[in-house]
Design goal:
By secondary structure, the protein is an all-alpha fold. Helices cover about 80% and strands about 0% of the residues. The protein has twelve helices and two strands. It has a two-stranded antiparallel sheet. Helix 7 runs antiparallel to helix 8 (about 200-210). The radius of gyration is 25 Å and the shape is globular.
Amino acid sequence: MTTASSLKRQKASSKQIVERVMNIIFFVCGITSILFVAVITLYMLISGIPAIREVGIAQFLFGTVWAPTASDPSFGILPMILCSIVGTLGSVLIGVPLGVLTAAFICYMAPKKLEPLLTSAIELLAGIPSVVFGLVGAIVLVPLVGKLFHLSSGSTLLSAVLVLSVMILPTIVSVTITSLKAVPEEYTHGSLALGGTDTTTIFKMNLPAAKSGIITGIVLGVGRAIGETMAIIMVSGNVANMPDLFKSARFLTTGIVSEMGYAAGLHREALFSIGLVLFIFIFLINLLLTRILKKDSSHQ
C-alpha cells in the first residue's frame, strides 16, 4: 500500500512539474510575441516620424506628386494611399463573393468524389508563391487587359485588382469551408424539413450561421491584399498616378520595394515613413474588422 501511494504521489508531482514547465513556456512565448510587436512598432515610429516632420504631415499625406530625386523634391504619397485602398477594396469586392460561393459549392453541391479534388486544388493554389501569380499576370493578364480595353499597356490598376482577387481566394475559400463544416447539420435538416430549398438553406441558414468564420477569412484575405508586393509590381506599371483602373498604379508596398535599393538621405527616411503609414493603415483595418467580429459574436 505504501509503495502504491508513493507511486501515486510521484506521478502527481511529475504532472505538476510538467504543468508548471508548460505554463512557463506558454508565458515566455506570449511575452516574446508581444515584445516583437512592440519592438516593430517602436522601430517604425522612430524610423518614420523624422521624414514626416521634415516634409510636413499635410504635404506628405495629401501631396499628389512623388518625385524624391528631382532637383526640387516632392514627397506626396496620396496617390499611393488611394491606389492601395482602391486595389484592396476592388479585390475584396471580386474575391469575397467568388470565394464564399466556391466554398458553398464545395461543401453542399459538389459531388462527394469531386470535393477532395477541389479542396486539394484550393490548397495548392494557396501554396503558389506570389511571384508566380505576378509572372502569370504579366504574361497572360496584362496583354489581355491591354487588348480588351485598347490600351497601350495593360499594366494598370485593373490588372493589379484582378491578380489580388485571385491571390486572396484560397484564404477565403479555405476558412469559409472550415466555418461551413462547423455549422451543425441540424440547421440544414431543420430548414429542409420546414420546406426550404437547398439554395434557401445555404443562403438563409448556413452562411449566416458561419458569418463569424467568413468574416475572419475576409480579414485574412484583406491582410494579404494590403501586404502584397511582388505580384503587384509586375502587373501594375508601378507609376504613382491617382487611382484610375486603366492607368498604371503604385501601391504603398511597391513604392517602398522599388526605391529602397538606391534611396539615401531624406528619400530613404521617406520610404520608412511610407512603411509607418502602411503599418498604421493595416492596424486600423484589423482593429475595425476585429470590432465587427466581436459585435457579431455578442449578438449571437
